[in-house]
UniProtKB/TrEMBL annotation:
Residues 39-118 form the U-box domain. Keywords: Repeat, Transferase, Ubl conjugation pathway. It comes from the Eukaryota. It comes from Hibiscus sabdariffa (roselle). InterPro entries: ARM-like, ARM-type_fold, Armadillo, RING-Ubox_PUB, U-box_domain_protein, Ubox_domain, Znf_RING/FYVE/PHD. CDD domains: RING-Ubox_PUB (cd16664). Its EC number is 2.3.2.27. It catalyses: S-ubiquitinyl-[E2 ubiquitin-conjugating enzyme]-L-cysteine + [acceptor protein]-L-lysine = [E2 ubiquitin-conjugating enzyme]-L-cysteine + N(6)-ubiquitinyl-[acceptor protein]-L-lysine. This is RING-type E3 ubiquitin transferase. PANTHER family: RING-TYPE E3 UBIQUITIN TRANSFERASE (PTHR45958), U-BOX DOMAIN-CONTAINING PROTEIN 43 (PTHR45958:SF6). Pathway: Protein modification; protein ubiquitination.
Length: 824
């Protein structure tokens, strides 16, 4: 019959008190101390501890005790003031000398070794899948006991080939067995390099790593404790790092809020040990634990710094991490970039390229001193110059830092306090743009985009472009096939257009085809891109009264494309892109160009009639939230309404009869109905652009309450065309009265938001006050009188003249007063 380790334990337990639980997690060492295969001799047991002695010593009276126990007895006697007596005989001792019992100790050691060997063999036979759970648990616990009792026993366990057998228990279906096996392996390998080496053989470490993701927290805790101990061995460190997912899981555990503090701490310490190998450091960085990699860049050898910087350049970092990295190692990377080793420079540039792609981290790099060496790398030619592929990286970094919003003009980058915006440096950038390939050209154009993003810096760039004659060469990039290069060019020209619009218009009007290319970009029906918005913005900024440019756009059918895109956007056919608003604003401004040349260009009038542009602009007045669209639409309606005076078809009166020609007193004046009240002719919105049609007046009046002064000014300017010379002013006043426009107009005068708005409001109010009823009503309004007096005293010369006439209408100034000469 098979006799198991449990049977042996049970027999011994019965001989104790029958209460021993083999599956208990409690400390079982005192039970194992009392398990013996061979008989236990009384001489082996210390009378004080009742345990087998490890270091027996003999007193002068021949009694033997465990050294530590008898020493403790003597100490207690002295401390209590008692006589030194033998604890067994209680007789006083003359001497406390302790004589080692070497023979007895050797005998006990031999006896213990034989017992433990026999016990270990019994435990070994229970370590298999066919054994009961309790047998296995007891066997594992016994192995822990003997290893903890003496480090030399770890060699015994190793030599008995027990380590592979314990590892096999990790495959058990019992959670208790798996946990006990992990716990036992930790005891077996603790501070024992040979046992760690054996455990690292085969797939054991991979199996342990798998326990890190188990559902049971106890298994995870035991596994991470075991891995921490194993990671103290450099040989095993490399093995752990080579297991797919090991570092990822450990990094995850260090940031987990569900793990207990001890588990998190062990995972963190394990990772610290794994940092000895560069490959492990790379994996940690890839999985979000960047500090080891940054430390290597700060403190490593030149080769390590280069290697780690190169790897950093390959990582994808979130924006917050980029800022942290820039603050931590930005200066070190810049120093590496300035080194004489081309490989180190390349590694540093690629890392800096990654970090600088976020505005906040770019600003940190600028403050760390990146700008001077970066510009030097770009401009240097000769033996130490960067290869073109690295100049492209430098140009990308420069583009990133310039577009960060930092005041780069405050950073000296050369002798005599030169900055990037100094004329020579801008000339150098323009020269590079003309003499490099598309990738670098694109990045350098983006640098110029950043430098022209504010008025202060843009003026420096404009001056350099004009002095170098680079306008034509920049405009030519509009035709390149590379979309990113073309877009960078268009964005740059858009930034330049407020300061050199006429030069750009002249260049675009050439025969090369750049204007056609711009129109082609706008007309692409593939959603709305940033490039399209920039192209529309560029055309919108060009001088609106440039007749040649508008004629060329008419000839190329540009306005038809633009009308189609505007209509589709307003109908909701194009949604969900962040460039819709700037694109629509640009399109409407470009479309409004055609209204500035109506008197000189019949084709412009024909286009407005064919596509009923007046109706479209009236509809755009209701583009709430798009102030620029409303303002430009109102201005376009002003231009269209100005032409109504000439486009209105005046009635043809029938020739008088014979009698009437001889006797005029017998003739009756012909009465013609259906004529426009203001223009005294046949009008329509589509043909003569008359604002009395299409609810235009009411919609313009509604804009007088707008919060944007420029929108109010444009709306008021459009309404003022109904009071202009050449129309029936009195009828125009009646139209405004019917539209309830008088009070909003007076409110505009009172608010005095801008000087331009006051000038326009005074002009309109003076025309209104020519009507006696209105003048009578207004004369009682002290606020209006005060506003007119203020204009009379403080406005420009022309407005003061008009204010004087207005004040006369309301009897604030006598009619015979002549402060200003009569106006024509």
């Amino acid at each position: 019959m098979r006799f198991s380790f449990r049977d042996y334990i049970s027999q011994m337990a019965t001989s104790w008190d029958g209460s021993y639980d083999p599956g208990s997690q409690s400390d079982d060492s005192h039970h194992f101390e009392r398990l013996h295969i061979e008989p236990l001799y009384d001489a082996f047991v210390c009378p004080l501890t009742k345990k087998v002695m490890l270091d027996p010593v003999t007193l002068e009276n021949g009694q033997t005790f465990e050294r530590k126990a008898i020493e403790k007895w003597f100490k207690e006697c002295r401390e209590s003031g008692r006589k030194l007596v033998c604890p067994l005989t209680l007789k006083e001792l003359k001497s406390t000398d302790l004589n080692p019992s070497i023979a007895l100790r050797n005998t006990i050691e031999e006896w213990t070794t034989r017992n433990e060997a026999a016990q270990l063999d019994m435990a070994r036979r229970s370590l298999n899948m066919s054994s009961s759970e309790n047998d296995v648990l007891l066997s594992l616990k016994f192995i822990q006991h003997i290893c903890q009792k003496s480090r030399s026993n770890k060699h015994v366990v190793r030599n008995a080939d027990l380590i592979p057998m314990i590892v096999d228990m990790l495959k058990s279906s019992s959670r208790k067995v798996r946990c006990r096996a992990l716990e036992t392996l930790l005891v077996v390998v603790e501070e024992d390099e040979d046992n760690k080496a054996i455990l690292a053989e085969g797939d054991t470490v991979r199996t342990i790593v798998k326990f890190l993701s188990h559902e049971q927290s106890k298994e995870r805790e035991e596994a991470v404790s075991l891995l921490y101990e194993l990671s103290k061995s450099e040989a095993v460190c490399e093995k752990i790092g080579s297991i797919n997912g090991a570092i990822l899981i450990l990094v995850g555990m260090t940031s987990s809020k569900s793990e207990n503090v001890l588990t998190v701490e062990k995972a963190d310490k394990t990772l610290e040990n794994l940092e000895k190998f560069e490959n492990n450091v790379r994996q940690m960085a890839e999985n979000g634990r960047l500090q080891p990699l940054l430390t290597q860049i700060l403190e490593g050898s030149p080769e390590t710094k280069q290697s780690m910087a190169a790897y950093l350049g390959e990582l994808v970092l979130n924006n917050d991490v980029k800022v942290y990295v820039a603050k931590t190692i930005g200066e070190s990377l810049i120093n590496l970039m300035k080194s004489g080793n081309m490989q180190s420079r390349e590694a540093a540039l690629k890392a800096l390229n990654q970090i600088s792609s976020f505005e906040a981290s770019s600003k940190v790099l600028i403050e760390a001193g990146i700008l001077p060496p970066l510009v030097k790398d770009l401009f240097t030619v000769g033996a130490n110059q960067l290869p073109m592929r690295l100049k492209e990286v430098s140009a990308t970094i420069l583009s990133n830092v310039v577009n960060s919003g930092y005041d780069v003009d405050s950073i000296p980058i050369g002798p005599d306090h030169q900055t990037l915006l100094s004329e020579d440096n801008v000339h150098n950038l323009l020269h590079l743009i003309s003499n490099t390939g598309p990738p670098i050209e694109c990045k350098l154009l983006q640098v110029l985009v950043g430098l022209t993003s504010s008025q202060t810096t843009a003026l420096n760039v404009v001056a350099a472009i004009k002095s170098s004659g680079a306008t034509i060469s920049l405009v030519q990039f509009i035709e390149v096939p590379q979309q990113d290069l073309r877009m960078a060019c268009i964005k740059l020209l858009q930034n330049l257009s407020p300061y050199m619009g006429q030069e750009l218009a002249d260049a675009l009007r050439g025969t090369v085809g750049q204007l056609s290319s711009l129109i082609r970009v706008i007309s692409e029906n593939t959603g709305i891109s940033e490039e399209q918005a920039a192209a529309a913005g560029l055309l919108a900024e060009l001088p609106e009264r440039d007749l040649g440019l508008t004629r060329q756009m008419l000839d190329e059918g540009a306005f038809q494309f633009i009308i189609s895109r505007v209509v589709k956007i307003r109908q909701g056919e194009t949604r969900g892109t962040r460039f819709v608003t700037p694109f629509l604003e640009g399109l409407v401004r470009v479309l409004a160009r055609v209204t500035f040349v109506l008197s000189d260009e019949p084709d412009a009038v024909a286009l407005c009639r064919e596509y009923n542009l007046a109706a479209l602009f009236i509809e755009l007045l209701q583009a709430n939230g798009l102030d620029n669209v409303q303002m430009v639409s109102a201005s376009a309606l002003e231009n269209l309404s100005q032409e109504s005076k000439t486009l209105t078809r005046l009635p043809e009166l029938p020739p008088p009869g014979l009698c009437a020609s001889i006797f005029p007193c017998f003739s009756k004046q012909a009465v013609i109905t259906g004529l426009c009240r203001v223009h005294q002719g046949t009008c329509s919105l589509k043909e003569s652009f008359c604002l009395l049609e299409g609810q235009a007046v009411h919609k313009l009046v509604a804009l007088l309450d707008h919060t944007n002064a420029k929108v109010v000014e444009a709306a008021l300017a459009a309404l003022s065309t109904l009071l202009d010379d050449g129309v029936a002013i009195e009828q125009g006043v009646f139209v405004l009265c019917e539209a309830e426009a008088i009070k909003p107009i007076l409110d505009v005068l009172l608010e005095k938001q801008t000087e331009n708005l006051r000038r326009r409001a005074v002009w309109v109010v003076e025309r209104l006050l020519r009507t006696e009823d209105i003048a009578y009503e207004v004369s009682g309004d002290q606020n209006v009188g005060t506003a007119l007096v203020d204009a009379f005293h403080h406005a420009d010369y022309r407005t003061r003249q008009i204010a004087e006439r207005a004040l006369k209408h309301v009897d604030k100034i006598p009619n015979f007063s002549g402060i200003f000469p009569n106006m024509g």
